[in-house]
Design goal:
Chain lengths: ~100, ~800, ~160
């Protein structure tokens, strides 16, 4: 993952390896990030992710929820083809989480 | 709009939950109890869940934060402390504030509180929160899915909340999940990620909880088999066949099924209708005697009873327990004592006593003021109390009881009590009390002054009280609902306040009277006695009309004059007086005719009449006409009747008591006099012809003696009236000699005499005082003193003359 | 009271009137008066008004209207006029403004007429200051002069 600090938001670039590697690594990574995130918004963007493990997705949601507790809103950007997949989770019901679709590859 | 109504329900439920939570928080300080802690947690949790549904995220966040800190206490990471309670109460206050302005919810800032709560917990709190597994506590599904539960009820189906772990079966992909779902498609109402069950990053658990909301005919286990997915949690939201399961009782509110929420407006309408029905009934009752239909009359009588019962029951619907007031009081005692540096223990009794809802508000205001006063002025600081040998913690106890339709509330404290000297000084300073009266006035009468506006014994006006406008407002408020208030106190030991209030208002028993051709009503409750006016008992003393009632002189107000400026002289012969009793004093109201008693419905007069103290409302009679209700307190205030100095008991001069009993009342030249019987040796009847003159002295023969006589007219400069043929002489023995007072007639011999305040110009020789006899001013004279003086002056040389004359005769 | 000459916005009290007015017409002491129908609740005959001792001069008294005690105001006292209506013969017009209620007396009540706002003239030059406060406009109709009453002003308590 890579982090880009903007004026009032943090953008996280989420790559394929993050989505497919050992979930425990991802979890530690998220844990570390929670210490340093101090801006009101976080945007997590899927970058060229073609496949991913369910555990990684689970961790992303956990991450968002923990952020919420700190008063930080989150945004999830996924490629179009994952749209159908995301719909299964009815993310629109999750408070303060916006999921957007990116018209990318 | 439907949404508005839902929001309104949400707000009222949330406020109820917060109120209960507040009570529990205060209780927890006294008596720590894990159950109570749980219930407070659940309150915040429920509000958090519900507010989320409506998008009220500010409320949601604050509730969440509060819930969080409570959870830390539950799990043992944080002790329950006073500071924590303060914080929670702050949170509750803020939530109440936001709920009261729900449509502006988004504009409320809570970052200050959030920060405070966050900082309150130790830094390691964020570590401990990982122990918090929100999964343990299911969201209040019943509220979340209440619509669906209703649907299940209608369709007579079961409703389940089915939770399972997507990651459990590592082979399961979402596509496979999709396929399985197709099998049970029609039974799934909604599904998705179970946000509440998602763990936080710190929990070191990876979970993707997924839920289904299922509406089905089948039992949940059957469903599970069909789905082929093992459930992590199965919650039954509605079962068609059986009674609700225990999961449902995860609610904070109890006894929901025993009560019904009814709009206050509806009740008010009902009460108005019953009021109208009563008026119409009264109309019928008036006409019934004219019908000459015994059966019809008995039916009417029965209906009348039914209406009275109906009225009572309807009034009871508005009854609310005093405990609602007590809850607020607890909080106020805590806050006020804290801010004033006092320690106060509060004892509350009789919370189950019920009062009409409209009275509850008045009572609350009154109690709040009295309690604040008590804590501010009454209860001493802990140091002071220690010095006085009292316990450092002051005690305030409130006791409520119900006796035949009247609620009595007693508030007692063990503080300083009233400083009677200060009250006296304050009253004298304000011209309400004369120095002389101040010496005689009793403590009980002094407490009356507390109720006058502006009398305050506190030097500086503090924020909480001491403005000197409080007690009269309290009493006025109580008066308006037909209540009274009474104080007693022992200086240094405390103050006891007793307030009585009728349990329900609206229909009150009244006496109807006629004044200047108009009807008026007076509350039966304040009437002590009714009498027919007798002119001989009436007199004017110091400009005030007074009436003799047995051994008392009572001030009288002529209603015709008060209301219409009528002259007293123009009143007819047959008048009546109603004696009004108010707490500690009496007065009378003079009116033209008595019309009888009636039960009336009180109606307010309206804004235009706000400044008029004399009336407390109006009512509508059976004939459809409006009638004013007299406010006896207002009349007393307006006329200043309680400041009239009146001797209300028998008064006898101690001097005269020693010397013997009784007085002789007599008349000279139309002036009434009285003198001690013991001064008089005998009373002789004489004819004017038997009065001789020696030089300018009048004498008579008495027991072979020549007795000089003195007329009082001479002494007091009274215009002498022509002598009647017959007169009387009061014979006294002065210094071995008989002397006499010449009078016109003897009126009476009485045992005791009441004195009244005297006016200046009647001071003079031998005058002991003034009284009233037969409504006429009577001068009490000491004839012995008078005669003694005259003996040394006018009669002095007479002795010699008489001796000479007698010696001449003998020769 | 503001009215612009172009777009005739007539303001009675704090309410801007519409172009067409519906007015209840009544008569007292030979003069016609009118008030916006939206403030008029009902008209009652033969009701006895009870005078309230010590009340302000402009309060005629109170009256029972359908179970409510309503205050009756004397418009003429408010306008400081000498000729006062006979309270015993009066017809009562019950007025309301939101949740406030008052009543006024009339000798007789006629009908509701429709009047276009451009038929109104300012009464400023015709009436005294005290009268103008309560009667801001006059209208002429079929040779009759109608005084338009500013009803909201009646609800102001002094």
């Amino acid at each position: 993952m890579n982090i880009l600090r903007k004026v009032d938001e943090i953008e996280i670039f989420f790559y394929e390896e993050d989505a497919t590697n050992d979930p425990q690594n991802l979890r530690s990574a998220f844990e570390e990030m929670l210490e340093i995130i101090n801006l009101p918004r976080v945007r997590l963007k899927f970058c060229e992710v073609t496949s991913f493990r369910l555990e990684s997705l689970a961790l992303i949601f956990s991450f968002f929820k923990t952020l919420k507790q700190k008063g930080i809103t989150s945004e999830l950007l996924v490629p179009e083809r994952l749209e159908h997949f995301l719909k299964q989770f009815h993310t629109e019901k999750i408070p303060d989480l916006t999921t957007k679709l990116e018209h990318t590859g | 709009m439907e949404l508005d109504s839902l929001i309104s329900d949400f707000v009222s439920e949330a406020l109820e939950l917060l109120q209960k939570a507040e009570t529990r928080i205060l209780e927890l300080e006294e008596d720590y109890n894990i159950e109570k802690l749980h219930s407070i947690f659940r309150a915040f949790h429920t509000i958090k869940g519900n507010s989320g549904m409506f998008g009220f995220h500010v409320i949601q966040e604050l509730s969440h934060k509060s819930e969080e800190i409570l959870d830390a206490v539950r799990s043992g990471h944080l002790p329950y402390s006073r500071e924590l309670a303060d914080l929670l109460l702050k949170s509750i206050d803020r939530l109440k504030q936001i709920l009261a302005d729900i449509y502006n919810e988004k504009n409320y800032l809570i970052s200050d509180l959030i920060e405070e709560i966050t900082n309150f917990a130790q830094p390691s709190h964020t570590q401990t929160s990982k122990e918090v597994s929100v999964r343990e506590e299911a969201p209040n599904l019943e509220i979340l899915y209440s619509e669906q539960i209703k649907l299940a009820l209608e369709k007579k189906l079961n409703l389940y909340y089915y939770l399972f772990e997507l990651l459990e079966d590592s082979n399961l992909t979402l596509d496979e999940l999709e396929n399985k779902l197709k099998l049970v498609e029609n039974e799934v109402l909604s599904r998705g990620l179970d946000y509440y069950s998602i763990p936080l990053i710190y929990e070191k658990k990876i979970s993707l909880p997924y839920y289904f909301l299922i509406l089905t005919q089948e039992n949940i286990d059957a469903f599970e088999t069909k789905l082929g997915l093992k459930a992590k949690q199965k919650i039954t939201l509605h079962l068609h066949t059986q009674q609700k399961t225990e999961e449902k009782t995860n609610n904070i509110t109890t006894n929901q099924t025993d009560f019904l929420r009814v709009k206050i407006d509806l009740l008010d309408d009902l009460i108005n209708l019953v009021g109208e029905t009563i008026i119409t009934r009264n109309q019928l009752l008036q006409r019934a005697p004219l019908w000459n239909d015994p059966e019809g009359s008995s039916i009417l009588s029965r209906m009348s009873q039914l209406i009275t019962q109906l009225h009572t029951k309807i009034m009871n619907t508005r009854l609310q327990e005093l405990s609602t007031v007590y809850q607020r009081i607890s909080r106020i005692v805590r806050d006020t004592s804290k801010s004033l540096g006092k320690q106060v223990e509060l004892k509350l009794e009789g919370g189950e006593v019920e009062l009409d809802k409209t009275m509850i508000d008045t009572i609350l205001d009154a109690l709040v003021h009295l309690i604040r006063n008590s804590i501010d002025h009454g209860i001493e600081t802990p140091e002071e109390r220690k010095k006085l040998g009292k316990s450092q913690e002051g005690l305030i106890s409130i006791r409520a009881s119900l006796q035949t339709g009247t609620v009595r509330i007693q508030i007692e404290d063990d503080g300083r009590g009233l400083d009677y000297e200060k009250i006296k000084l304050s009253a004298i300073k304000r011209g309400l009390l004369t120095e002389s009266r101040a010496q005689e006035i009793s403590n009980e009468e002094l407490t009356e002054f507390i109720f006058l506006p502006g009398v305050s014994t506190k030097e500086n006006i503090t924020e909480t009280s001491g403005r000197g406008v409080g007690m009269d407002a309290v009493r006025n408020g109580l008066k308006k609902i037909g209540g009274t208030i009474h104080l007693t106190s022992v200086t240094g030991q405390g103050l006891k306040i007793t307030a009585t209030i009728p349990q329900t208002v609206s229909v009150i028993s009244c006496l109807l009277i006629l004044v200047n051709g108009r009807r008026f009503a007076i509350f039966q409750k304040y009437i002590a006695e009714l009498l027919q006016f007798e002119e001989k008992n009436y007199s004017v003393i110091n400009g005030h009309g007074m009436y003799q009632l047995r051994e008392n002189l009572i001030p009288i107000i002529h209603l015709g004059k008060l209301l219409y400026g009528e002259d007293i002289q123009s009143k007819q012969q047959n008048s009546y007086i109603v004696i009004i009793r108010l707490d500690t004093y009496y007065f009378g109201l003079l009116f033209d005719e008595m019309l009888g008693t009636e039960e009336i419905v009180i109606k307010p007069l309206g804004e235009h009449f706000k400044g008029i103290k004399l009336f407390s409302g109006a009512t509508i009679m059976g004939d459809g006409e409006a009638v004013l209700i007299l406010d006896v307190f207002g009349i007393a205030d307006y006329t200043g009747i309680h400041t009239i100095e009146v001797k209300t008991s028998k008064e006898i001069i101690s001097k005269t008591k020693e010397r013997g009993k009784g007085y002789v009342l007599f008349e000279s030249s139309s002036q009434y006099f009285a003198t001690l019987s013991s001064s008089i040796v005998s009373i002789e009847r004489i004819s004017t012809q038997s009065i001789y003159h020696i030089s300018n002295i009048e004498v008579i023969e008495y027991k072979n003696d020549i007795v000089p006589i003195q007329r009082l007219e001479e002494i007091y400069n009274i215009e002498k009236q022509p002598d009647q043929k017959e007169k009387f002489v009061l014979i006294c023995k002065i210094e071995e000699r008989y002397l006499g007072i010449l009078i016109d007639k003897v009126l009476d011999v009485i045992e005791s005499l009441q004195l009244v305040p005297s006016s200046q110009h009647w001071q003079g020789e031998g005058i002991l005082g003034h009284a009233l006899y037969d409504q006429k001013p009577t001068i009490l004279v000491d004839i012995e003193a008078i005669l003694t003086k005259v003996n040394h002056t006018k009669f002095k040389w007479l002795g010699k003359v008489i001796e000479e004359t007698m010696s001449l005769e003998v020769k | 009271m503001a009215w612009q000459s172009n777009r005739r916005n007539y303001v009675i009290g704090s309410q801007v009137m519409e172009d067409k007015l519906q007015l209840l017409i009544w008569e007292t002491n030979g003069q016609l008066y009118a008030g916006d129908v939206k403030y008029c609740l009902e008209v009652q005959n033969g009701k006895k008004i009870l005078d309230v001792p010590h009340s302000k001069k402009y309060i005629t008294g109170i009256v029972n209207l359908r179970g409510d005690i309503v205050t009756v105001l004397d418009l003429f006292v408010l306008m400081e006029q000498k000729d006062l209506p006979d309270k015993n013969k009066a017809v009562i017009i019950r007025l309301k403004d939101n949740d406030k209620q008052v009543a006024v007396m009339a000798d007789s009540v006629f009908e509701v007429i429709e009047l276009h706002s451009n038929m109104l003239e300012s009464a400023e030059n015709h009436l005294s200051e005290k009268e103008f406060k309560y009667i801001p406009y006059i209208a002429r109709r079929e040779n009759h002069l109608i005084l338009i009453v500013n009803i909201p002003e009646l609800f102001v308590i002094h």
